[in-house]
Amino acid sequence: MIFLDTSAIYAWTDARDTNHEAAVKRLQEILNRGEQLVTHNYVLLETITLIQARLGLSAAVKLVKDSWQFEIDWVDKHIHDLSTAALGKSAKRGVSLVDQVSFLIMKRRNLTMAFAFDLHFKAEGFRLFEV
Question: Could you tell me which of 15, 27, 21, 26 has the C-alpha nearest to residue 54?
């Protein structure tokens, strides 16, 4: 199982993104291996908002319709509160609440690999999926 981040979803969606080719290649390899992708609803919301702002409503709606293909963890109050506390303790300005939720979910699921282009995952001790 591999964690799926906003940075990867956006990169494979936007052909103009600098990581687009790598994202498409990595996604294909993940599918070829039969790996399951898992994310959480905060990542989906963040990505849908980003795609709608940059690529338009139809691209955002397509992601909403396609998201059934991922396993989705739904953030509850407990996870939100733990992640908010971690954000408050973090001295890393560039690490968002969504990132904190991602790290917590990965740790709870014992996941070590993220399909991401966000180097905060690596700094947090996770591996980035590469082909």
Answer: 15
Residue 91: the pLDDT is 75
Alpha-carbon distance values, 76 to 24, 66, 83, 101, 103 (Å): 31, 23, 11, 10, 15
CB-neighbour burial class of residue 26 (10 A; exposed 0-12, middle 13-18, buried 19+): buried
2 pLDDT band (50/70/90 cuts)? very high
**CATH number of the domain to which 105 belongs:** 3.40.50.1010
Q: What is the pTM of this model?
A: 0.94
Where would I find the beta strands (DSSP E) of 37-106? 37-40, 71-73
Q: How many residues does the chain have?
A: 131
The label of the residue with tokens 């702002």 reads 53
Using a 10 angstrom Cβ sphere, with 0-12 exposed, 13-18 middle and 19 or more buried, the burial of residue 56 is: exposed
**Number of separate domains in the chain:** 1
